[in-house]
Amino acid sequence: MTQSLPRVDRPLFPDGYGVPADLDHLLPWSFVQEKMNAARNYWVCTVRPDGRPHVTPVWGVWVDDTLYIEGSLSTRRAQNLLANPAVTVHLESGDQVVILDGLARAVARPTPDLGRRLSAQYRAKYGPLGYEPDPNAWDQGGLFAVQPVTVLAWSQFPQDATRFQFPSPERSA
């Protein structure tokens, strides 16, 4: 399900970083969508039970402004997400930046339509690398939907540094 468009403004950086105060040159949400769609690897940071971070690179697909990642439920990443849905995702580039802070939820069994769409996206992206999941691949679990809450993005820092914010019941005003 596609979320409503986010509120767009400047990210907060300490003085001296040169981030403009005006709203000129902000990036459009389509910049984030394009980068998330095109990414091959996503660096996913979760929180261990003792509060320490845990970071892993994973494959995933961006569908309806949601990042879907998968893997065995016995992985540290999955166990962390089941206990604490807070997650940060960073793409590989430090120049064409997208940093997504969000909430992950386990998808017990995707609807048939979503299963087909996810399978098609995974096949298109990772089929040449030998990964072509069936639409029913996630019927036993192992799939997480990461909904963005706050996204930072830039391509010419600091001029176009942009913050996108979605409403979230988990987030303080």
Q: What does this molecule look like?
A:
- By secondary structure, the protein is of the alpha+beta class.
- It has one domain (7-165): Electron Transport, Fmn-binding Protein, Chain A (Pnp Oxidase, Chain A, Roll), CATH 2.30.110.
- Helix content is 19%, strand content 33%.
- It has three helices and nine strands.
- Strands 1, 2, 3, 4, 5, 6, 7, 8 and 9 form a nine-stranded antiparallel β-sheet that branches.
- β2 and β3 form a beta hairpin.
- The model has no long low-confidence stretch (mean pLDDT 94).
Q: Any key phrases for this structure?
A:
173 residues, alpha+beta, Pnp Oxidase, Chain A, nine-stranded antiparallel β-sheet, 19% helix, 33% strand
SS element count, helices: 3
CATH T-level topology:
Pnp Oxidase, Chain A
* Helix proportion: 10-25%
N- and C-termini, Cα separation = 23 Å
Shape: globular
- Given this structure, which CATH class is correct? Mainly Beta
SSE order, one letter for each helix or strand: EHEEEEHEEHEE
| Annotation, overall tally of beta strands | 9
What is the structure about, briefly put?
Helices cover 19% and strands 33% of the residues. It contains three helices and nine strands, in the order βαββββαββαββ.
Q: What secondary-structure arrangement, pairings included, does this model have?
A:
Blueprint lengths: L6 E3 L19 H10 L3 E6 L5 E6 L1 E4 L2 E5 L5 H8 L2 E6 L5 E11 L4 H15 L16 E12 L7 E4 L8
Antiparallel strand pairs: 1-9, 2-3, 2-6, 4-5, 5-8, 6-7, 7-8, 8-9
